[in-house]
Design a protein that fits this description.
This protein has 445 residues and is mostly beta strands. The chain is 11% helix and 47% strand. The longest helix is centred in the N-terminal third of the chain and has 15 residues.
Length: 445
């Protein structure tokens, strides 16, 4: 997570304030909502039918089918406007640094069906960057064409096309970082981790679901020109580089037993990247697998468990020299996420996540300690009183959440993670100094 920022800012002791901002972003990502009220109005179903918690983001099997059907399911009555909005106010309390209380985000969603076969999800984010300054950006996009109720042999099948700007976000199981909204913070994360490519690429994939059990997807991505990234609200400094020969592959087995659900899947992303765009070419391959289990029961008690493991292999196009030796021509990084969520009556919930990023030793690329290893834990509790079948209205939704983010290790160390020199005017920063707490109020309508 956030590796695109870290790549340019790591190993500078004076940038400690930036890391507090990164921690806040991590908290913000953990509170991302995907229960969009326009979908509830379109289908006549409650938000809690698609999400384990009434405000999201974790999908139930019903929500997965809605996504695979291209967001086109409807209650049969027309006249539904596919628009929704969200406001988020957050109290952020970092372990070191200034606490803030502000309206952090005002979002607009264009989310719903266009025809029986075309639907989508588009989020335009207006985020508060401080000093009452707001920045408008195009967030996740997932536009779909779907052909369903097909027959292959005597089994049902669904075929579709997704045009999206975030590899993994379109995945129906929602275990991959792009869809789950959480991944390990790191100084050098994989491309499939959060934010490495998100919103700065565009791609298309063809997907299919056979017998409601076997899911497959094949696609490709290209990075947007930096001028277009700027027009969409993203600074050129976060450019993921020029991508070529990029392929995305996903295969998963999923089983819906009504009261329980489980899945097992594999994912791959391969590309050749030039960063900077006129520089040498790196060959990068992500290989991952994920396991999920849900106990749904009668929806009184819901337990969701997921584990994702992504290994990224890198063959660098250059080997920059350090003071005494050169960087290694090859390397690997690994991102692991383990999450457990318990939801009571679809309103009260607690989430525990263990996030690990590790990598091969490289004294030049990962100074000062030679390894990028970062370990962190997230604890979150939430209350979502509306969005259920017996709620007063499906027009609006509300969520109050508290999140603790704690670092056990960062940038290969527990102490002095940026390598501040003895006697430096900049104080040393320990991993625990990056801890943060946030309290957020989200409203969608």
């Amino acid at each position: 997570m956030l590796s695109f920022l870290n790549r340019r800012t790591r190993r500078r002791p004076g940038n400690t304030h930036l890391w507090y901002g990164l921690a806040a972003l991590l908290l913000f990502a953990s509170s991302t909502a995907q229960a969009v009220p326009s979908y509830a109005r379109q289908t006549g179903a409650a938000c809690a039918d698609c999400h384990a918690g009434a405000y999201g983001p974790a999908l139930t099997p019903y929500g997965m089918r809605f996504k695979l059907n291209g967001y086109t399911d409807t209650d049969g009555s027309g006249g539904k406007i596919p628009l929704a909005a969200q406001l988020i106010a957050t109290r952020s309390v970092p372990a070191r640094g200034e606490s803030t209380m502000r309206l952090t985000e005002a979002d607009l969603y264009l989310a719903g069906r266009l025809t029986d076969q075309v639907g989508g999800y588009v989020k335009v984010e207006n985020s508060n960057t401080g000093n009452n300054t707001f920045r408008t950006r195009l967030n996740n996009v997932d536009l779909r064409f779907v052909a369903r109720d097909l027959k292959l042999g005597d089994k049902e099948a669904t075929l579709g096309v997704s045009v999206n700007n975030n590899p993994g976000f379109q995945d129906p199981i929602a275990a991959l970082p792009g869809a789950a909204g959480i991944g390990p913070p790191s100084v050098s994360g994989s491309l499939l981790n959060l934010s490495a490519l998100a919103h700065r690429v565009i791609g298309a994939s063809v997907y299919g679901l056979y017998d409601s059990t076997w899911y497959g997807e094949v696609g490709s991505y290209a990075s947007l020109p930096t001028s277009q990234q700027d027009h969409l609200g993203y600074a050129a400094s976060g450019d993921p580089g020029k991508l070529s020969d990029t392929g995305y592959f996903r295969f998963a087995y999923m089983k819906d037993l009504r009261r329980q659900f489980f899945s097992a899947g594999v994912v791959a992303l391969s590309t050749r990247r030039q960063l900077p765009r006129s520089g040498p070419r790196d060959d990068i391959t992500d290989l991952g697998y994920d396991l999920t289990y849900q106990f749904l029961g009668n929806r009184e008690h819901i337990v969701q468990l997921s584990y994702t493991n992504i290994l990224e292999k890198r063959r660098y196009g250059s080997t920059p020299a350090g003071p005494a030796l050169a960087a290694r021509p090859r390397g690997v990084v690994r991102d692991q996420t383990t999450s457990l969520t318990y939801t009571f009556r679809q309103s009260y919930g607690i989430t525990l996540s263990h996030l690990v990023n590790s990598g091969s030793r490289d004294a030049v690329r990962y100074t000062p300690y030679g390894v990028p290893d970062t370990t962190s834990n997230l604890v979150g509790v939430f209350w979502a009183p509306f969005g259920k079948d017996d709620s007063y209205t499906s027009v609006a939704n509300l969520k109050i959440a508290a999140t603790w983010f704690r670092f056990a290790r960062f940038n290969g160390s527990r102490t002095n993670v940026f390598g501040a020199a003895p006697g430096s005017a900049v104080p040393a920063t320990d991993a625990r100094d990056l801890d943060a707490f946030s309290l957020s109020l989200s409203a969608a309508f």
